[in-house]
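Sample intake sheet
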Amino acid sequence: MERNGTAARVRASVAVPVRCDGRVHPATLTTFHDLVDGREHLAVLLGPTTSSVPLVRLHSECLTGDVFASERCDCGAQLEEALARITETGGVLLYLRQEGRGIGLYNKLDAYRLQGHGLDTYAANRALGLDEDARDYTAAAQMLTALGHHEIDLLTNNPDKRLQLERHGIRVRSVLPTGVHMTAHNSAYLKAKATITAHTLSTEGPQT
C-alpha cells in the first residue's frame, strides 16, 4: 500500500475519551502521512487489544447523519452501533472523509433535492453527472497496513468494501452485518441499497 513509492505511515496518535452506548470509553485517534488521496482520514482505536484480528468498520463521513442525526439515511445510527460494538470486542473504526458516497456535501444535498422529485439515491447521482458511488477504499487499506492489521473482521452490509480491501491485500476473515436502522424517512434509500448495490440488509423490518 504505497503512494508514489512510499508506504503510508502513522503521523500521530492521541488519547480521546469517546461517548457511545451511554458511557465514556477511552479511545486513540490516529492520523497518517502519505495516504493515496491526500485526505485527512482518521482511525479510531477502541476496546481491548487482545485479539490479533480486530473488528473494523469503514465509515464514510456523513455530516447530515453523523452530526445532525438526519433520518434520510442510516449513517448516524450505523456510526453509533459500530462504536459500541468495537468498544466491546476491540478494533478500529476508520472515519473516511468521503461525504455523500464520495461526491461531496453540496452535491449530496443537490441529490437529496432530486430524490424529493422521485429519483432513488443512485439515479439522483447519475442525474447530476456523478458516479453512483465514487468511494475508493485504497486509503483505508493503507491505514490498516500502517496500523499492522493485515487480517480483519469487517463490520459492513456493503460487499464492495470487502472486495476493495482484499484487492489491496487486506484479508477479510469474516463479514459481520450491521443492524437495519429503518425509519419512515429512509426506507426508500435502504431499499435502493439492497436492490441496486446488493447491500446485505433486509428492508422488511419495522420502521421507527
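Comment: The radius of gyration is 17 Å. The mean pLDDT is 89.
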